[in-house]
Amino acid sequence: AYHKTGARRVVAIKCISKSSLTKQATENLLTEIAILKKIKNEHIVELIDFQWNQQFIYLIMEYCSGGDLHRYIRANKRLRESIVRKFLQQLAKALRVLQEHNIAHMDLKPQNILLSSVRNPSLKLADFGFAQYLRSGDLASSLRGSPLYMAPEMLLSDHYDNKVDLWSVGIIMYECLFGSAPYASPTFEEVAAKIRTDKPIQLPQGAVVSDCCGDLLLKLLQRKPEKRIGFEEFFAHPFVDLEHVPSAETLKKGVALIQQAVAKDSQGCQREALNLYCQ
After folding, report:
1. 127 pLDDT tier (thresholds 50, 70, 90)
2. Which listed residue (49, 68, 107, 161) is catalytic?
């Protein structure tokens, strides 16, 4: 769809029939709208507006022309480690914003990660229907998410915390690197049985990844949440290193400074140009 007024912009419209909404689904939808209205980030799909009539609720969303990460993995079989690192850094940026607002996504999977475009895609985290507010140390108990990406503690215990998202990140990372999830099976029962085993996840035989990449992957896929890497450690891990990853805003500022420096240089103002280059 397109905006009728102002600058022409392609948007995606999610149409939800009111008659199909259960009480829980209604609560999930309201939570999703509230979260997306509050959070604005370059790696979280934007909720532009929402409207409704007697029959339907319409979510007007940012349009991502690159499809989703699931399709991208299927098309490319396995992703290069450099691409996986770039995507993981972008996902980490989105998760850091969620952490700052005490939000757990609860349904991280490649199908819920959109790509901004076909060429040079940027990740956009989407579908917050299962998300909930969880501060560090808070516990939840309802079963949420997709079985293939569901943390063991969701199936094995009555309570879990926001570290379930980090397990899902590990499964997604594994799938990007090796082409399939470690517990891939045709039925829920088989997936659940594999998740319930005590056998730790190992890298596939013959896998070629850097020590840094393999270290993070195995730390994310620790079955016991108390042994799993925490969010701050994840953000600071050398494979992610969020502190040194430029944002779109800083990149834009950097380009502007370089353009100003080049202009000063061409005018013969070397001292001013040098100051701009050093910024």
Report:
1. very high
2. 107
